[in-house]
Amino acid sequence: MSINTLNIHARWRLAFKTIPLIVGIILIKFVVHYLGYEFLTLSSLFTAVISANIFLIGFLISGTLVDHKESEKLPGDLASSLETMADEGLIIYKNKKSPEAKQYVCKLLQLNETLVQWFYKKESTANIMDQLHSFNDDFLVFESQTQANFIVRMKQEQNAIRKMVHRIATIRDTSFLGTGYAIAEIITTVLIIGFVFIKIDPFYESIFFVSFVSFILIYMIYFIKDLDNPFGYNEKDNLVEEVSLKPIKDTQKRIESYCQLLQKESVKKSR
Asked: How far apart are CA 254 and CA 93, in angstroms?
């Protein structure tokens, strides 16, 4: 399967999930129509409820988009902090040929690898915090090897990573739209049931109206649910594009190359 085919499938998979439900609603509508159970009429009150529900859904989407936009920045910010810490360690190594600096850079690689696994919920937040805390021992060693401002910069980046990890954990583990989402689900369900029993002439126009409005409402409910967790990499039913981890994965490759280079230099010196 080509990359373009995969991208098209990813773009339309939310619609593919919605379509079977719409087909089911249309089939039920046909059965209700031919059995003569359409006892409701399309009134201005019903259309007002539709408008109110669309307004509520729009409000929920605007709220989730704000968090999603913030979330898009976090992997890049994490990568920048990791690489900045690695740069400081490389500078210390070049100046002092310090074996502790070499170990420090390779230790950052381990932290980077753990962070990637953490995004997929294969590592715990507590483990991340323990690894971050362990860098304090390295900073103590560096006090005799470099200027204080170098250590201050590294501690600032350490603190920035800690804050970002806490923020990502909060976004990932907390649903900010629980009550609003539940109300939107209930109203959408009631509206769809109403669509099934509403009599609209001619009948085939009602099929178009019911299927079109139901598709929009159900699609947007799915969209909000998935958008609410931009870090749902381990969720198989997550149909919206998650925040890209490319920056932090690219940084992992660069830090790995730094670590390998330092190890090669150490081997040459030992010969």
From this structure: 17
